[in-house]
Amino acid sequence: MNKNLLFIVLFILGSGKISQAQNKAYPWQVGFGMSAPQFTIGDAPFHKEYFNVKNWNAFPSFNLKVARHIKYGISAQSTLSVGYAERRPKIDNDGNAFIDFDINIKYSFANGYILKDKCFFDPYIVLGGGYNRSFLKHRGTVDLGAGFNIWIFKHFGLFMQASYNMIPKKFDASNPQNFRGYMHHTFGFVTRFGKGADRDKDGIADIDDKCPDVPGLKEFNGCPDTDGDGIVDELDACPTVAGIAAFAGCPDTDGDGIPDTQDKCPALFGPKETEGCPDTDGDGILDKDDACPSVKGLVQFNGCPDTDGDGVPDKDDRCPETKGLVALAGCPDKDGDGIADIDDKCPDQKGPVSNSGCPKISDVEKKQVQEKLSFAAKKIEFETGSDAIRKTSFATLDGVIEILQSYSDVEVSIDGHTDATGNPDKNLDLSIRRASAVYNYFVSKGVNKNRLNASGYGQERPIASNATADGRQKNRRVELNIK
Prior knowledge:
- The protein is rod-shaped.
- It starts with a helix and ends with a strand.
- Helix content is 15%, strand content 24%.
- It has 6 helices and 11 strands.
């Protein structure tokens, strides 16, 4: 077969494959290229004889390599080379077909111990043996060589290898067909593939995994993002809580521009000056420490005001707008009887608690007061058939008011009565209206209405006979009785 034609056929067959080199991340390697065996006649020094390109049998030829990484940069490699070979410079021999099959142990220096796994320059050495057929003879060989890969891309590159294949048999120097061994040069394209070591079982090879001992995500080169905030855990200051990049992965729950880790009030919007805590009322006391956060107050009262300045905060002050005593919950006690004015029925006169702050009246005094009230009541007159008090009775009523003011603990019942003349229902209504008229007069003059009670009985309680004019006049009356 024409040598050029043989080369074209072999190249077309080989170009259908992609060649490779491998490491622990990409354990498989397939390579293809050319084979250039060199059989010399021993007429020059080793380095000149075996590395003289003119003596290489490169055309036509084909070389295929397959290798599988084992561990620590060590691989098992098999190589098949097919081509044409002759001894050069030529002597009395004819060229013929060349077949070489080798099985080697390959050691790569780009193994993570000597050079980085991802080193673009990947040198290696090989040691092994194989089978050779050349010059119509079959021979066993022992191989020792070296080579390198240059990774142009992640999975694709170029390779070159040179090995000396020694033929371990008796050597006859006088026989031109005999030779101790030959140099075998190979070069071409290489690619690497396969699933390599994956310690964390996340589907990302350790060589490409920036976090090889922790399962992670492909988009983060194998590193985890536990909280799913788009920031990998190793760069996330808060890896278990979703946050934002501006705060290294920590959240800002209240959106006040202060990360929760530095925010003393992470759920409330607040300024930086107060470390993220609000002061709604602006009294200098943070809402979280302010018992009255919506009203300006004092530090001593935990942010609550004391409007009347009596030392009792408004929230505890029964009389927040009137200065009073701490002992009486902020209320005043004008008469000093120990009863707050708001609870004292007689705030201007001392009296015991049992009598609601009013001075107690003796039985004798009570009898005397009742006599005065009864006497005054007889002089209270109304317009005929009306509840209008006659003006002549005003002086009498004012006198009663003076008595009530002198005896502030006295409570009075105002009872209206009529004679039996006319309709009973109308009489009852008239008696009620007349009692109420007196009641209203007393209240209008400052008597506490709680001390008064007005009732009407109509004609039901006569004190004299209704058969006579004198009796009927006596029955038309208003009585003032101490309760």
